[in-house]
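2024-03-11 09:14:02 INFO queue: dequeued item FLZ-type domain-containing protein, len=91
2024-03-11 09:14:02 INFO validating residues
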Amino acid sequence: MASYYAGVFGSEEPHFLESCSLCRKHLGRNSDIFMYRGDKAFCSNECREEQIESDEAKEKSWKVSARSLRKKSSEAAKDCKTVRTGTLVVA
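2024-03-11 09:14:37 INFO prediction written
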């Protein structure tokens, strides 16, 4: 079966409005579509909310891991001893 959106947009690739981004349920032409971040379509508000919660959890874990990396690098910098290099001229 040919895609409606392929005919409209002149592309054979599946269009993002063809199916739900989470559960992959087919999105009909006359059905409600719930959008998220501009390019993700969902069949229901529940699927959309589940994706939002998943993205928020990922962002939170990334922030926590980035914070721990910064803390580790600052602790490592404190442990380093300063070494001065340069040229010494003796007359």
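2024-03-11 09:14:37 INFO annotate: The radius of gyration is 26 Å.
2024-03-11 09:14:38 INFO item closed
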